[in-house]
Amino acid sequence: MIADLAALLRFFSRVPVPRLSRLDDPAALPAFPRAGALTPVAAVILALPGALTLCVLAASGLPPLAVALVTIGVCMAVTGALHEDGLADIADGFFGASTRERRLEIMKDSRIGAFGTLALVIGVGLRASLLAALLERFGIAGAGLALLGAEAASRSAMIVLWSSLPPARPDGLSAACGKPGKFAAVVALGIGLTALAPLPAFTGPVPLAAALLATGLLTFGLCRLALAKIGGQTGDVLGACQQIALVALLAGLALEPATG
Fold first, then answer.
1. 223-258 pLDDT, tens per residue?
2. Mean pLDDT across the chain
3. Fewest Cβ atoms closer than 10 Å to its Cβ: which of 38, 88, 150, 164?
4. 80 — alpha (psi -120 to 50), left (phi > 0) or beta?
5. How many C-alpha atoms does 220 have within 13 Å on its Cβ side?
6. Cβ(88)–Cβ(117) under 8 Å?
7. Is residue 141 within 8 Å of 58, Cβ to Cβ?
8. For residue 174, what are the contacts with CB-CB under 8 A and spacing of at least 6?
9. pLDDT tens-digit profile of 18-66?
10. Closest CA to 159 of 130, 136, 179
């Protein structure tokens, strides 16, 4: 378990993780058929610097939007903007080409196009505004827990999608890592839901239910879109799934239930 968690931390971040056990190979890719279950745990660990940044800056009196933007910047620095890159790539590939082969070719290109740029701007803007709203409504503790919970649960959605689709590119990184099995997906989902469990104390049950519903629907929608556009999943599709799920979770949690 320790070796799997260390491999996940190296894979999903720029953090230098030393060898933690005899079975831990720093050069090895995570064995996602087994290690995929621990992906939400790795997500919480990698989100801790962002959550700490949020707490410190919010306590200093900075405006919530500024706190949110810096927090997101820290999270992106830790992960190397891995999933944001995936979101930009599928935006360019899915909506900038008309054939499966051309879409995959565009997604493999490191250059970013108009669709990718717009997707990044909209995605970061939504995350910042929603996190700022959570900070204003629920304070430092509520916003910090929402960030950690959403980061974990969005990785759970990613693992569920990964386990549900075949690789679109047999020589791609997601294929090389191995597809998580159904058991790993169920465990990952359980961990993600557990990470969200404290939030009704701040938001109430309705926003959390809305967040989970939106995440499920959007993950299913992306699953169908990826099948239609490229016939399966790639690392870019998985990264985009995490980003879309993250926005859906934050948006749901930020809802104000109607009263009266």
1. 999 999 999 999 999 999 999 999 999 999 999 876
2. 95
3. 164
4. left
5. 6
6. yes
7. no
8. 162, 167, 233, 234, 235, 238
9. 887 777 888 888 989 999 999 999 999 999 999 999 999 999 999 999 9
10. 179
Angle 42-46-47 from CA coordinates, rounded to 5°: 115
Please say whether the beta carbons of 117 and 164 come within 8 A.
no
pLDDT tens-place string over residues 151-187: 999 999 999 999 999 999 888 888 888 899 999 999 9
Amino acid at 129: S
The confidence score (pLDDT) of residue 213 equals 98
Rg (CA), the chain: 18
Other Cβ atoms within 10 Å of 183 Cβ, number = 13
In angstroms, the CA 120 to CA 124 distance is 6
Domain layout of the chain by residue ranges = 40-253
User: pTM of the prediction?
Assistant: 0.95
Which ranges in the chain belong to alpha helices (H)?
A: 2-11, 32-35, 39-60, 64-79, 82-96, 100-108, 114-164, 173-177, 182-196, 200-203, 205-230, 235-253
Tokens of 94: 């899915």
Cα–Cα dist 184/182, whole Å: 5
CA neighbor of 150 nearest in space, from 104, 102, 189, 196: 196
3 state DSSP class of 233: strand
